[in-house]
Amino acid sequence: MSSTAALAPAPPASRWPPPYLLYLGNARDHLAAKTARGLAHWRPQWCVGQFRGSDCKTTLGLPDLDFEQAVAAGANTMIVGVANAGGVMDDEAVQHVVAALDAGMNIASGLHQRLASYPDIVAAARRNGRFLFDARQPPPLAVGNGRCRAGRRLLAVGTDCSVGKMYATLALERELQSRGVRADFRATGQTGIFIAGAGVPIDAVVADFISGAAEWISPARDDGGWDLVEGQGSLFHPSYAGVSLGLLHGAQPDALVLCHEPGRAHMRGLPHYPVPDLATCLEANLQAARLTSSDVIAVGVAVNTSNLGGADAAARACAEIEDALGLPCEDPVTMGMARIADRLQSCFAS
């Protein structure tokens, strides 16, 4: 439900109608602006520009627009496209949101703290007749039941956080759809929800309901198509293994894609924890998934090679992983997912 349901009903066409102005604020690096970056990559046709604060350290390569310029360019909604520890806005960001509302835009946010918790933002939405949307507002959910359900599902899992699970599932959706295969990306994070227009924010779900949330976003289907479930966290990350396990059980995946960033020195945010060996990580995910999907298999490895220094190094890294695991390995952004899609289709040919 919209965080401002008491103010006005949500527009019927979309909870956060495009076109968008992407708000970067004072993001310190590209990961701090990952929500905006994901939208700019996967839905460029919706994005008219970016707004950057005076201390912003990153860019999306979009036109820099102020709020009035964005409205003149057609923007309907400003997406708060940043992520930070705690998921809150500072005073400057609140002032910017108010100014965007006064300029005539709706506001959508992927932060943990609800837009409606800021009185100045609520007042600005009311006086301008604008809407507020929080992507991290889960729907009512039931606990998972583990009952076998019809349809095919693939889940992206990872060696760590922020290794490309969303990119892998979106790229696979694009590849399968290009082949005439029914395939639907199922979002579990705020960026994916903005891209897909629907989903469930797993990191805002009470722990008992995580597996139920995965069941809710990938219900039974009988059309021969695939639900491609966006993974979160890693079984080997002490902070987020719980959400990863809940997704493995609730998704009941027929297939897994392992996501990895070669060269990462340690688990994200935890320099005292090394990144796991790929074979060990993959086997742990398969074993956990077998609780609710006894015949689950791995069909490929998706890698983020952006920090390897070029195409040759990326190709070598993929070749090494293929030799070690016996699975196709591709970078979803620079190589696509054709070979992983080939493997998926061949393993599940009807």
UniProtKB/TrEMBL annotation:
InterPro entries recorded: DgcN-like, DgcN-like_C, DgcN-like_N, P-loop_NTPase
The D-glutamate N-acetyltransferase-like C-terminal domain, residue ranges: 143-340
Pfam families named in the record: DUF1611 (PF07755), DUF1611_N (PF17396)
The D-glutamate N-acetyltransferase-like N-terminal domain, residue ranges: 63-138
Gene3D superfamilies in the cross-refs: NAD(P)-binding Rossmann-like Domain (3.40.50.720), P-loop containing nucleotide triphosphate hydrolases (3.40.50.300)
NCBIfam families reported in the protein's UniProt record: DgcN
Protein known as: N-acetyltransferase DgcN
Organism: Luteimonas soli
Lineage, uppermost ranks: Bacteria, Pseudomonadati, Pseudomonadota, Gammaproteobacteria, Lysobacterales
Gene that encodes the chain: dgcN
